[in-house]
Amino acid sequence: VNVDPSQASVTGAGTYQAGDTVTLQSTKADGAQLVFGGWFENNMPVSNNNPYTFTAETSRTLEAHWNTAE
After folding, report:
1. Cβ 10 vs Cβ 39: under 8 Å
2. H helix or E strand, kind and range, residue 64
3. DSSP secondary structure, 14-59, as one string
4. Distance, CA of 46 to CA of 60 (rounded, Å)
5. Are 27 and 4 contacting, i.e. CB atoms less than 8 angstroms apart?
6. pLDDT digit string (tens) for 53-68?
7. Which residues make beta-bridge pairs with 27?
8. What is the dihedral of CA 46, 51, 52, 55, to 10 degrees?
9. Cβ pair 22, 56 in contact under 8 A
């Protein structure tokens, strides 16, 4: 899981066995003026849910995207 640690953090990242339930949650840093933009894989959106729960099947690299609040 990739995220800018100065802006947000992620819980749930790690190594899982196939069939395991994975729950990722990204939380913005205190004072960060951000809105959650979704979970992405290979620059493609996979979920707008936060937390995001799925079943581990293959190796994945997910990114939590945050957008500047307006």
Report:
1. no
2. strand 63-68
3. S---TT-EEEEEEEEPTT--EEEEEEEETTEEEE--SSEEEE--S-
4. 11
5. no
6. 999 999 999 999 998 8
7. 9
8. 170
9. yes
